[in-house]
Amino acid sequence: MSRSLPYVGKPSEGLRQRLSDAANARLFVVHAPGPTSFVLRPDGSERKFRVSIGSVHTCTCGAREQPCVHVAFVMIRVFRLTADDHRTWQPSLLDSELEALVNSRERHLAAQRVQARAFERVTSECACSSGCSGDAGAKVARIPIDPEEGECCPICYEEMTVEEEEQEHLDWCKLSCGKSVHRRCLQVWSDHQSSIGKALTCPFCRGNWAAGT
């Protein structure tokens, strides 16, 4: 199948600037209706933008040219493309390119789910080990942040650090997967869940989030 819009061999200066802005943007992914659809909320704003990646990228920001900064954010931060990957600056993707993006992200998420299952254990029936948080209300231990590998927050897609963990800037899923998330980002996620009439769930595993955490 041919590309819906002309292939862009080299990004313009304006597009390069948008890509740079996207790489450094403070945006929150508050909802993912599908594998190629995302709802973003800028930091410090109540406004939300729906981004769709596909044969023709779309964003409700109304930008005249794609990729806008929101589409570029999804490509760079969510789909983890590098700045020199030609897919990053295309206004449209081939079916094969889109499939490769979705499959790559799903493999990454699947690996995280495997890791979570490997660490899952009931903490209420045993003494905490060095990798356990010591939270008496937790049914699942926190999976420690790997100082070598690092891990991205599933809401802002910025790296979470061991220092943030030690300073208690991170919370974690105490009922299901044990994965961490920035506390501030979790509040943004919670606000969105409330606004659409849903109970708070884990942004990683979508399991119920422990009340009062």
From TrEMBL:
Q: Which residues form the SWIM-type domain?
A: 49-79
All copies of the RING-type domain together span 153-206
Protein origin, superkingdom:
Eukaryota
Pfam families from the xrefs?
Answer: SWIM, zf-RING_2
Q: Is NAD a UniProt keyword of this protein?
A: no
Which keywords accompany this UniProt record?
Metal-binding, Zinc, Zinc-finger
What SUPFAM superfamilies does UniProt report for this protein, alphabetically? RING/U-box (SSF57850)
GO MF term (any one): zinc ion binding
| Record protein name field | SWIM-type domain-containing protein
Q: Which organism is it from?
A: Chrysotila carterae
